[in-house]
Amino acid sequence: MIRISREELAARIASDIPEGSYVNLGIGAPTLVADFLPEGREVVLHTENGMLGMGPAPVDGGIDPDLINAGKQPVTALAGAAYFHHADSFGMMRGGHLDVCVLGAFQVSETGDLANWSTGAEDAIPAVGGAMDLAIGAKQVYVMTDLLTRSGESKLVARCTYPLTGVGCVTRIYTDHAVFDVTAEGLVVRETFGATIAELSDITGLVLR
Amino acid sequence: MIRISREELAARIASDIPEGSYVNLGIGAPTLVADFLPEGREVVLHTENGMLGMGPAPVDGGIDPDLINAGKQPVTALAGAAYFHHADSFGMMRGGHLDVCVLGAFQVSETGDLANWSTGAEDAIPAVGGAMDLAIGAKQVYVMTDLLTRSGESKLVARCTYPLTGVGCVTRIYTDHAVFDVTAEGLVVRETFGATIAELSDITGLVLR
Amino acid sequence: MIDKTVPDAAAAVAGIPDGATVMIGGFGRAGQPVELIDALIAQGAGDLTIVNNNAGNGDTGLAALLAAGRVRRIVCSFPRQSDSWVFDDLYRSGRIELELVPQGNLAERIRAAGAGVGAFYSPTGVGTQLAEGREHRVIDGREYVLEYPIRADYALVSARKGDRWGNLVYRGTARNFGPVMAAAATTTIAQVDEIVPLGALDPEGIVTPGIFVDRVVSVGERAWLDDGVFVGGVDREGRAAS
Amino acid sequence: MIDKTVPDAAAAVAGIPDGATVMIGGFGRAGQPVELIDALIAQGAGDLTIVNNNAGNGDTGLAALLAAGRVRRIVCSFPRQSDSWVFDDLYRSGRIELELVPQGNLAERIRAAGAGVGAFYSPTGVGTQLAEGREHRVIDGREYVLEYPIRADYALVSARKGDRWGNLVYRGTARNFGPVMAAAATTTIAQVDEIVPLGALDPEGIVTPGIFVDRVVSVGERAWLDDGVFVGGVDREGRAAS
C-alpha cells in the first residue's frame, strides 16, 4: 500500500491548521509539523514549559539554554512571544484555550481513547509529562503516527491495551496511510493516501466509513 | 476610664509590627497604622487590589488613578514594589503569606470570631469585599476598634450576633481601652491603657484574664 | 496575518447579545474599561449578567450601564460604596439581582474557569452566611467550602498597551481582575491606551498572552499618564469611594 | 532594613534538615538551580523528598544529588529521559521511590499549596492509571479527579535577577516552576545571576514578589548570557534529552 513519509504527513497536518491557531506540538514527530506551516500563515506555537510564540531552532551559535521546548531542544522566540510559569501554561491547556495539539501515539481507540505514555512493560520507567493535560485540554487533539507498528500491528484499535493517556479525547488521526476522524458513529476515513477503505479496514480490523 | 485616641492606637499597633513583616491594613481606621510605622523600620504593605510595597498617599498633583488602595484612595509605590493580578493577590492571603492584617470590627467574640462586614440590618446593601479572605488568611489577624459602640455596648462579646466574617480567626484586639489576646483559654488582657481588668470585665461582661 | 485589532469601541463590542454574561475588569474605577462600557450601552444589549468587583461608581462606566437598565444580575464582592447610588437605588427597588461573593473567591472562581479547574475548596467564608448551602469538607483538619468556576460569554478589560496578537500589559493596580477575566470568557475584548507593533512588548513582561484575547481596540492615551491631570479613578480631591 | 541576600550558596542552603521535602525548580536543566543543589550536596542533608518536573539530567545538578544518595523519594512528571541514567539506575534497583504526577496536575497542585486552596478537581488523568484510587466527581457533565496541594519545607529556585526584598525576575523558559514553587514552600531560596538594587526591577515585571522568598544568593553571570557560549541546559551539539 502507498504510504507517505513522515515529512509529507507533517506537511499534511500543517496545511490543516488555520491561520491564527494556537497550537501545541508534542515531543517527537509532531515537532516536525512546525517546519511545514505554509509560508506567511501565522500560527502561534505553545510550548508547555512556558512560552507562546515559539520560533524554530536557533541557527548555529544561537543556542540559549534558557530557551527550550518541551523536548528540551533549543528554540527561539518570535516577535510577539510571551513567557509564563508552569501553572499558567497548563491552565491554558486545561482551560481549553489551545486550538490544536498534535501528539504521538502507541494506540488510539475507535472512540478516541489515546495511549501514548506507557507500554505498560514491567521494567519500564514511567514518565508522563504533559501528555495527559494536552490530551484533555486542546479543542482539537490530532494524533500523528504510523498506522502500523514495526511488527505490523495496527495502532488503531477497538480498545487500547496500553495504559490510557486520555479517554475519548482524540478528534483526528493522521497516519502514513490515511487520515481518520473520530466521530460519534465511529472512525471515518477523511482522506486516504492510496489505500481503499476496505484495505484500511482489513489492516486495522475495524469498521471504517 | 482612660481611653487613647485612634491615632495613639494606630501608633501602638504600628510599634508591634516587626521589621520585614508583610502587612495588610484594612479599609478605614486600620489604614492609619501606616502613618505610625517607626522611622527606618521596613514593613511591606500589601493591598488586596494587587500591590506589595504600597507607599503613602501622593503629595499634591501626584494622584494616579491607576494606583489606588483597597479603599480606592490614591497611593504610591515604594522602590521594591510589585504589581500582580487579583487571583495572585488573594492567593497571597489565602495561602497564609501575610504576616499581619489589621481589620476593623463590629464585634469580636471571645473565641476570635469576627463580624465586620454586615450588621444584618434588613435594608442594608450587603458588601463583603476582601474581609473574609483577610480574616482567614493572615498569620496574625489584629482587630483595631473602639471597645464600645457609640451607644455604649461592648464590641467584645461572648458570641457575635452580627453575621460572621470569619470563625476563630482573630488573634489580637486593639481597642481604645486595652489590648486583648485571643487564646485557647479565652481573652487575655495583654495591655491596658488605664482600666483595670475588673473594669474591663465589667464593661464587656466577659471573663478576662 | 493575525490581527485582533479593531478600529473602534463599537466594533469591539459588536455581537454581544441580550442575556449575555459579561465580565468587566476593574476595581472601582481603576482598570474599568469605560470606553467599552459606553460602546456597550450604545450597542443596546440588555438583560445582562455582569461580573465585576463592584457595582459601579458615580454615574459613568458600569454605573451608566446599570442606570440604562441593561443589567439583570450582578455578581460582585463590594457593591455598596459611597458613590454607588445607581446600584443602591436599583437594588432597593428590586430591579437588580445580586450575587455577593467574597473577593478572593470571586477572583479564584474566575481563575478556575480560565484554568479548566472543575471546582476547588476554599477556606474563605466558612462559617459565614455566604457559605450557607454550599458543600463543606474538612481537609487536613481545616474546613473548606466548595466553590465553582465563574465563566462568561464576554470579558471587557482595560490594559495599558496591546499588540495585534492580543498580548497585553497593564499599569499599576489597574491590572486587578483583567488577567483572570480575559482567560475566563469565550470572547475577550480589550481596550488599551496604545496599540504597539508586534514585538514591542517585552516577552518577559506580557501579563495577558494573546491566546486569551479576541479583540483589541485603542482608546487613546489618557492625558494624566503624561501630565498628571486626573481622569477617572478617584475624584479630583483625592477623596475615595470607601 | 530588610535584606534577604546571603553571601554564598552554602549560607543559602544552611539548615535544610534530613528528611525535608525540597522543591527544585527547572524543566530539565533550564531553570535548575545547580549552584544551590551543589551546596545542598556539600551541606549533607539526606533522606530528602524532592519535587521537580524531572529526575535529573546527566551527572550534574539534581542528578548529582540523586547520585549522592540523598534522595529517598521523588515527585515528578517525567523522570525518564535520554540522560536520566542516574535516576534510572536508582529506580531499577529500588533505591528511590517515585510518585508520578501528570505535569499540569503537578504544577497546579504546587500552585494550590501556595494559594491556600484545599484541593481542586482536575480533568487531567481521568480514566488513567494515574487517577486510580483518587476521588472522582462529575461536574457539569464532565468527570474530574480530586487533587490535593503539594507543599514543601524548602524550595530552591533559579532566577535571572533578584533584589534584597527577594523580588525575582526570570529569563525565558527558565521561569517554568520557579514562581509556583516559591509560593508553596515554607522557606524559599533563590539563586540569581545578579542581585540588583531595590527599585531596579520594574514593578510591572516582577514575577515572584519578595513575599514568597526568604533567601537570595547571587551565583554570578552565566557566560553564555553575553557571548552565546553554551553552559548547561542542552548539550553542545544542541541535541536534546527527549
Automatic annotation (TrEMBL), chains A, B:
<dbReference type="InterPro" id="IPR037171">
    <property type="entry name" value="NagB/RpiA_transferase-like"/>
</dbReference>
<dbReference type="InterPro" id="IPR004165">
    <property type="entry name" value="CoA_trans_fam_I"/>
</dbReference>
<comment type="similarity">
    <text>Belongs to the 3-oxoacid CoA-transferase subunit B family.</text>
</comment>
<keyword id="KW-0808">Transferase</keyword>
<protein>
    <submittedName>
        <fullName>3-oxoadipate CoA-transferase subunit B</fullName>
        <ecNumber>2.8.3.6</ecNumber>
    </submittedName>
</protein>
<dbReference type="GO" id="GO:0047569">
    <property type="term" value="F:3-oxoadipate CoA-transferase activity"/>
</dbReference>
<dbReference type="Pfam" id="PF01144">
    <property type="entry name" value="CoA_trans"/>
</dbReference>
<dbReference type="InterPro" id="IPR012791">
    <property type="entry name" value="3-oxoacid_CoA-transf_B"/>
</dbReference>
Automatic annotation (TrEMBL), chains C, D:
<keyword id="KW-0808">Transferase</keyword>
<protein>
    <submittedName>
        <fullName>3-oxoadipate CoA-transferase subunit A</fullName>
        <ecNumber>2.8.3.6</ecNumber>
    </submittedName>
</protein>
<dbReference type="Pfam" id="PF01144">
    <property type="entry name" value="CoA_trans"/>
</dbReference>
<dbReference type="InterPro" id="IPR004163">
    <property type="entry name" value="CoA_transf_BS"/>
</dbReference>
<dbReference type="InterPro" id="IPR037171">
    <property type="entry name" value="NagB/RpiA_transferase-like"/>
</dbReference>
<dbReference type="InterPro" id="IPR004165">
    <property type="entry name" value="CoA_trans_fam_I"/>
</dbReference>
<comment type="similarity">
    <text>Belongs to the 3-oxoacid CoA-transferase subunit A family.</text>
</comment>
<dbReference type="InterPro" id="IPR012792">
    <property type="entry name" value="3-oxoacid_CoA-transf_A"/>
</dbReference>
<dbReference type="GO" id="GO:0047569">
    <property type="term" value="F:3-oxoadipate CoA-transferase activity"/>
</dbReference>
